[in-house]
Amino acid sequence: MKGLKKTALLALSALLLTGAPLARAVSVGAAKAMSSAVADIVERAMPAVVVVRTESTGYSLAQDWMFGRIYRLPERLAGMGSGVIINKEGFVLTNGHVVDGAQQIEVVLNDQRKYSATLVGQDPQTDLAVLRINTTEKTDFPFLEMGDSDALRVGEFVMAIGSPFSLSSSVTLGIVSQKGRAIGALPYEDFIQTDAAVNRGNSGGPLVDMDGKMVGINTIIQTTGYSQGNIGISFAIPINLASEVAQSIMRNGRWQRPWIGIQMEDTGARVIIRRVIPHSPAEAAGLQSGDIIAAINENAIQQAREVQRLIMSQAPGTQVTIRVLRDGNTIDLSLATEAMPLPKFPAFEE
Q1: Predicted TM-score (pTM) of this structure
Q2: pLDDT digits (tens, 9 = 90+) for 191-238
Q3: Nearest CA to 117 among 134, 102, 130, 139?
Q4: Which residues are catalytic?
């Protein structure tokens, strides 16, 4: 917002010196200054925003009524969403559901260059995925700088950029309506809520602040009745979380989610540990079923989501202090987070 404020102040100063009627002059000058600032941000951001096109094979059932046989008939399924280039090497961040099950992926840049892309990895818990543009060219791709979603304030202006309803390179403007939203759509949620118009096809595109930096990945919209369009309630994954997931996927092919190994229950303003996972950091530290979590690293705890957010903000191997209430006593326990182990399926255990 610094550049926008400076531009508006300069415009206001010039208008005051001309002696124009104050109310009208200030209104028109401020509007023009903001309009120009928004257009400048869009010009800088747009080259890094891409259309993500996918192809997959689905099957429909058909029956031979003479002999009663049922056949599975293959059919081509096409999908489309948005994405954003996050470094000059051509890595693209998008939503996991945009590329789920895709057998072929194509990205289209704002200048209409088209490239095939490879899925590097995806994380179902956060609905994020990373692609890499396939090219033999020696080129530096345009990319969008990441901001700080923790510093984002309710009421700030933001822009959603993407390809709603196949309308590529679309921009909408709104404000941050709230932060830390959970709507029950994903295993872990810490959404930014915005009233910037986001529709089908916007998924995976960036939410951009007034400094021209990416502060979120547009993911889900709230609809009502039979409507599939925007009603002014949209949700984005905070970029601080999305960046951690993306970096981990680029390094390891998956998100190494920080984990301590407990199952929790919210009971009003308290969080109770219901189960400690065997051989977990929590067990090694001495946490017990029935402990009430009072604080993590001196941050007071009232909801299980706060525990998730604080643990997931720590890289695996980070030391964490957990304060618990047990039998009327306050106990501080120290442990190191670990990467959450991959799920095991009994049929494949060795």
Answers
A1: 0.80
A2: 999 999 888 888 999 999 999 999 999 998 765 555 555 667 899 999
A3: 134
A4: 97, 127, 203
